[in-house]
Amino acid sequence: MPAALENLRILDFSRVLAGPFATMMLADLGAEVIKIERPGTGDETRDFGPPYDELGHATYFEAVNRNKTSIALDLSSQAGAARARALAAESDIVVENFRPGVLDRLGLGYDDLRPEHPALIYCSITGFGRDAGADLTGYDLLVQALGGLMSITGPADGEPQKVGVALVDVLAGLFATVGILAAVRHRDRSGEGQRVEVDLLTSLLASLANQGSGYTIAGVIPGRMGNSHPSITPYELYRTLDGELVLTIGNDRQFGSLCRVIGAPELAGDERYATNERRVHNRQALRADLERTLARRSAQEWTDELTRARVPAGVVNDLAGAFALATRLGLDPIVTAPREDGTPVQLTRNPIGLSVTPPTYRSAPPLLPG
């Protein structure tokens, strides 16, 4: 079966999450990825545990390093840097997330490699860019704080909260993947390589979507609203007989259907709730009215009945429930990739579906090179 990115070779100097996530996405699509690791210790995430697999490997590392081979190189040594430079000369793409200037001092920066390899695509992922933010350390939690995400996450009367996964790193990895593919497309047409730059801070700001445009256009500085939505309601968690029900009502038709299904059609005719804008202004009153009715039945019972009526609703799953749901829906969320000894490792499936050149899972994350 052909692969979308076969015959592309990536030299991957990146560590931890954003860069490895990007190179794994490209590897799933067929690119050859050679991962450069520090001798003796390797990528930092090899020590990020628990949890570990049955062989004692950190599952954090295994999350973002399948379909790669690994080489140990001491880039600070003359021999190691020379070997890395030779590998770069044979590669289509270089990906790195060192602090700005580190690889330049080792003779492995973009300006060092480009004269010998003008078709090279060189992707740098930084925390805060190469200029005034070059000396700042780009850890996901720090960027969530400095980038405003924590200021809009968590209960209104509680402390700022981070998202439950290193979301900024994942977003930056996705932006890097898009940038690399755009550069590949340009090189296919022109033969010219280029530098691709992504930083964590602007990756987060670009992902704030409606919250970001509310500030840039209207000057609104939002605060924390728990699970509420600033512009839509009902769109949050509601108490039922036994737990929380998620309602995500996006238009007046859905609201009317919700009211009919839960046995409170009068709410749809209430002037306070006639339009989304009015519902937003009367959010607390609507919440009280809905919860009086929802308290009669369990969250799962309401979910089943509302779903049959095509009203978007659901319960709050843990990860076991989430993977089980995806499996029931035929989405096959778990795939297997073989270790070097042939034993399988279960990993999360790449979500990209391609009818001719689908992602493949050729190998599990590599063992620490000797």
Task: Explain how this protein is built.
By secondary structure, this protein is an alpha/beta fold. The protein folds into 2 domains: 9-207 and 332-348, Crotonobetainyl-coa:carnitine coa-transferase, domain 1 (Rossmann fold, 3-Layer(aba) Sandwich); 235-316, formyl-coa transferase, domain 3. Helix content is 36%, strand content 14%. The protein has 14 helices and 11 strands. The strands form 3 sheets. The chain has a 6-stranded parallel sheet with strand order 3-2-1-4-5-6, with helices on both faces. The chain has a 3-stranded antiparallel sheet with strand order 7-8-9, with helices on one face. Strands 10-11 form a two-stranded antiparallel sheet. A hairpin with a 4-residue loop joins strand 7 and strand 8 (244-248). Helix 1 packs across helix 7 and helix 7 packs across helix 8. The relative contact order is 0.12.
Describe the secondary-structure layout.
Layout: E1 9-12, H1 18-28, E2 32-37, H2 59-63, E3 68-72, H3 78-89, E4 93-96, H4 102-105, H5 110-113, E5 121-126, H6 140-146, H7 167-190, E6 194-199, H8 200-206, H9 209-218, E7 235-239, E8 244-248, H10 252-261, H11 276-281, H12 283-294, H13 299-308, E9 313-314, H14 319-328, E10 334-338, E11 344-348
Parallel strand pairs: 1-2, 1-4, 2-3, 4-5, 5-6
Antiparallel strand pairs: 7-8, 8-9, 10-11
Helix pairs in contact: 1-7, 7-8
